[in-house]
Specification:
The chain has two domains: about 200 residues, no CATH class; about 30 residues, no CATH class. About 25% of the residues lie in helices and about 20% in strands. The protein contains six helices and ten strands; from the N terminus they run αβββαβββββαββααα. The strands form three sheets. A five-stranded antiparallel beta sheet has the order 1-2-3-5-4. A three-stranded antiparallel beta sheet has the order 6-8-7, with no helix packed on it. A hairpin with a 6-residue loop joins β4 and β5. It starts with a helix and ends in an 18-residue tail after the last helix.
Length: about 260
């Protein structure tokens, strides 16, 4: 990925910290460009992602997004910053009037335009349902999550943009060699992928044999790269959205 000299080398001026984030996450500017900065030094390793390389996984997710050609992930790169090397990503101003993923009363699930994921109870023991919009943008994000093995697609990790575009963020928990898919975007389970979605997976698989594979080789292990290629192959063979499997929860906690 080519990053302009100012974005690659310009000073990052920090404005504040995103406090709900589990890893150190800061908002700042490079010149007049607003960015998110996550230093490697502020990462909190998990039992299944213990290597302190979350920033590299975020950069890898952007490269895969570019190979898909769907603009799922905002521009993301690695560089030095006020607290050392970390992930830097272009800030996105979301549309507060939109909710692509929502929790609603079970009696109020819309009949059209939405997909139902699961039912549960809120803190007052009222029945609620997790739903997400039925849109091409979210379908593509769900395909992206399958091949990158995203273990943390929370509702809050979907950014609703003016005009209907959807960005996915927070991809530090991706590319594990073992099955880790945890997402709120299960609304198309078992349905066939459309021609555009299959073509996107095919583009990524072909790119893995060339420049994409070489670039990802600097960010991921050989085992992780092999597992990534295998996930692409399985999805191209099945031609449909997978079902949850394994003993781990299929939805991240909390889901938002």
């Amino acid at each position: 990925m080519t990053v302009g000299a100012d974005l690659a080398d310009g000073d990052i001026e920090l404005e504040g910290r995103v406090m709900p984030a589990s890893n150190a996450t800061f908002v700042g500017t490079i010149g007049d460009v607003r960015v998110v900065y996550k230093p490697v030094a502020g990462e909190q390793p998990l039992w299944d992602f213990p290597d302190g390389n979350l920033a590299r996984r975020e950069a890898a997710a952007y490269l895969v997004s570019e190979a898909f050609g769907w603009d799922v992930v905002p521009r993301t790169w690695l560089r030095d910053g006020p607290m050392g090397v970390g992930m830097v990503q272009l800030w996105q101003d979301v549309d507060p009037a939109q909710d692509a993923v929502d929790l609603v009363a079970s009696s109020a699930v819309p009949d059209e335009g939405w997909r139902h994921v699961f039912d549960g109870y809120d803190g007052q023991d009222r029945p609620v349902s997790l739903i997400h919009e039925d849109s091409p943008e979210l379908r593509r994000m769900a395909v992206f999550d399958v091949v990158t093995n995203n273990a943390d697609r929370k509702g809050g990790h979907v950014l609703e943009m003016v005009g209907g575009h959807r960005y996915g963020i927070d991809h530090g928990l991706t590319f594990h060699a073992e099955h880790k898919l945890r997402t709120v975007l299960w609304g198309w389970v078992g349905e066939n992928l459309d021609a555009d979605e299959l073509a996107g997976v095919e583009r990524v698989r072909v790119a893995l044999t060339g420049d994409l594979g070489a670039s990802l080789g600097e960010l991921l292990t050989a085992v992780e790269l092999g597992a990534f290629a295998a996930r692409c192959d399985r999805l191209l063979d099945a031609c449909r959205f997978p079902r949850p499997r394994g003993e781990m929860p299929a939805i991240p906690w909390p889901p938002f």
